[in-house]
Amino acid sequence: MITSSGNRGDAIRSDCFVEVSLHEAIGNSILIESKVNSLYGKSIHELCLRVLDFFELKNAHVFIDDKGALPFVIAARLEAAIRQMIKMDKEFLLPVEGKVFITGKEIKRRSRLYLPGNNPKLMLNAGIYGCDGIILDLEDSVAPDKKYEACFLVRNALRSVDFYGSERMVRINQLPAGLDDLSFIVPHSVNLIIIPKCEHANQVKAVDRRISEILGKENTDIHLMPIIESALGVIHAYEIASASPNVVALAIGLEDYTADIGAQRTNEAWESFYARSAVVNAARAAGIQPIDSVFSEIDDMNALAENVKKSKALGFAGMGCIHPRQVPVIHEYFNP
User: To the nearest 10°, the Cα dihedral for 95, 122, 290, 130?
Assistant: First the structure.
């Protein structure tokens, strides 16, 4: 049996591809292909041996195609490949780096930057852009066959990457699958869980209940942000916003919402005026922050500025962003 994890190809940076197989001969073997083998090959080899020893593998062959991956990435890729082969609950955890902190319910959430959960390159320096929140995304940005391995990478990133004070957010997968994601992230200093495609208050309660089960106590530290992305979600917006005291914000996702109502999204946004107003009203009535959708035209800063002005005029407190260059514009117009 051969299992693999990670990404490979000429365009890949700060990542690696790992392949693991078992053979009959006793003894582990490790083959590393890397342009920095002379500098880091020994440390990569030693890390792999530690992981193999932790999982009590004595007859494994490991192949690594390294593209400048840091230790937390290599460890995540190797563990994901091993645990596809051998089902177990053991976790190989590197030491936590940096300061662990809890965020307040009412901190500014003007900007939240989405990062694909299976792309370590984009995670490494994300904090330098000064966004209020960084989202490690396990949902739409991750291919279905990569979701399992992305959980290991996101877990390790939460423990190892310095996000320079940005609130540490993770968007889980749509429920019920998202409930399985929580065991990878809840114990590892996440500040806020984003619940996508939320349509009922019971979905929020299920996430909150699962978090408490993992923590072994009532959850009071990990915040929740449901995203409304359908007509039904809009109808139930207040019930969702008030479903738990841990809900600190209610967001709207307009790409899926407009598709759900059979409309095309436009810069004028008349097709979503009712839904956006309903989300703002529900959030404000529940005493939490309303958060607007992302603006997908990353090269048009003037259009973004106009969108942010309209968003703030409607009562939103912040919005999502998909590129770092959007952060300064969003902050400028959402500042008091």
Answer: 80
pLDDT digits (tens, 9 = 90+) for 108-144: 999 999 999 999 999 999 999 999 999 999 999 999 9
Q: Which domains does the chain have, with CATH numbers?
A: 2-85 (3.30.230.10), 111-334 (3.20.20.60)
Instruction: State how far the Cα of 189 lies from the Cα of 172, in Å rounded to an integer.
Output: 15
As a whole number of angstroms, the distance between CA 211 and CA 261 comes to: 32
Q: How many residues does the chain have?
A: 336
pLDDT of 183 > 90? The answer is: yes
Q: What tokens appear for 195 in the block?
A: 């619940």
Indicate yes or no: pTM above 0.90: yes
CA 190 – CA 184 distance, rounded (Å): 10
CA pseudo-torsion sign 141, 146, 150, 153: negative
Q: Which token pair is 38? A: 């002379």
* 3-class secondary structure per residue, 187-254: CCCCCEEEECCCCCHHHHHHHHHHHHHHHCCCCCCCEEEEEECCHHHHHCHHHHHCCCCCECEEEECH
Least confident of 97-106, 131-140, 193-202, 231-240: 97-106
- CB of 64 within 8 A of CB of 152? no
Say how far apart CA 72 and CA 69 lie, in whole Å: 8
The distance from CA 118 to its chain's CA centroid, rounded to whole angstroms, is: 9
- Whether residue 307 contacts residue 100, with contact meaning beta carbons closer than 8 Å, is answered with no
The dihedral built from the CA positions of residue 308, 300, 259 and 169, taken in this order, carries a sign that is negative
